[in-house]
Amino acid sequence: MMHARFAAIGVAFGFALSRTGFSSWERTHAMFTLRDLHLVFAFAMAVGLLAVGWLAVQAFSREKPEWAPRNIHRGTVLGSVLFGTGWAISGACPSVALVQLGEGQLGAAFTLAGIFVGNYAYATARERWLHWNTGSCVDD
After folding, report:
1. How many angstroms separate the CA atoms of 60 and 58, rounded?
2. Residues 39, 31 contacting (CB under 8 angstroms)
3. How many structural domains compose the chain?
């Protein structure tokens, strides 16, 4: 039953991403070139909603959750640049690539393949050559 709930939430999230235009390469490109701020405002609204939600969780939880910031390491900047470049080229972040695939945009399969290949390549490079501490639970 819980899987059905998670699937329903995922479908609703995907529908919202599709309807707001996040699955459109043209809209994403217009956002990155600052020709259309529709998605920028959608991001800002999502961050504001998340902040209100976080405050509500803190106010009404029996155990007060704490936010633990992650360490920034040498790979953060490079990873951010690569992520942003991939997003600008493909017009999709990982969740949007799934939405695009659900919409029948078969080019999203290449984006998803790139995501998996990139993660594998990073894990391999980090293990063999980089050896930096990312501060994640994987390092424990």
Report:
1. 6
2. yes
3. 1
